[in-house]
Amino acid sequence: MHCFSRRKQFYNKGCAAYSFLHTPEITITLSDVGAGYDIKSYTIDGLGSESAVLRHIEVKAVSPFDYKFFWTANELANAKIFQETYYLYLLPVFETGMFDLGGLEVIKNPYFNIYKNQDWDSTIELISCSLSVSSGLSE
Predict the structure, then answer these.
(1) What percent of the chain has pLDDT over 90?
(2) Which terminus of the chain, N or C, has less C-beta within 10 A?
């Protein structure tokens, strides 16, 4: 079960086994925009478990019609590195700007389940270009 919903239970029961939850279990990567994910969180297997599994979460606002989103090369690289602990949260947004929480899709290991999955279409839409140091034009 995910910490978002269980944290209050742990505090209310005063479980010493969950003392590590007194530190923030959710970190939003505002200070490290190159992290390749938006949120660092933890998954706990059950109330009796003392172990927590790190979860890297990338959140994308998507169209409710086709769930189209843009993935940076860094996000894709991190999805490949973290695989089973990397999650993609696809949150549909209506034209009014309201979120469709009922349409939220949580995808574990999106590198395999989206990028390497033929059910999803991938199109290269952006190419980064910069002046080569060896070109001599920057002198």
Answers:
(1) 46
(2) C
Structure tokens at 135: 């070109």
Alpha carbons 132 and 40: distance in angstroms, whole number: 35
Contact assessment for residue 90 and residue 108, using Cβ atoms and an 8 Å cutoff: no
Task: Tell me if 53 sits within 8 A of 43, measured CB to CB.
Answer: yes
Q: How many domains does the chain have?
A: 1
Domain residues for the domain of 94 are: 3-135
Q: In the β-sheet with 39-44, what is the strand arrangement from edge to edge?
A: 27-28, 39-44, 52-62, 86-92, 105-108
- 107 and 90 Cβ atoms separated by less than 8 Å: yes
Element (H, E) at 129: none
pTM as predicted: 0.69
Lowest mean pLDDT: which of 46-50, 82-86, 115-119, 126-130? 46-50
CB atoms within 10 A of CB 74: 13
- Cα separations in angstroms, 44 against 23, 30, 54, 69, 79: 15, 24, 9, 29, 21
* Both tokens assigned to 47: 């109330």
Which residue in 69, 65, 63 sits closest to 93, CA to CA? 63
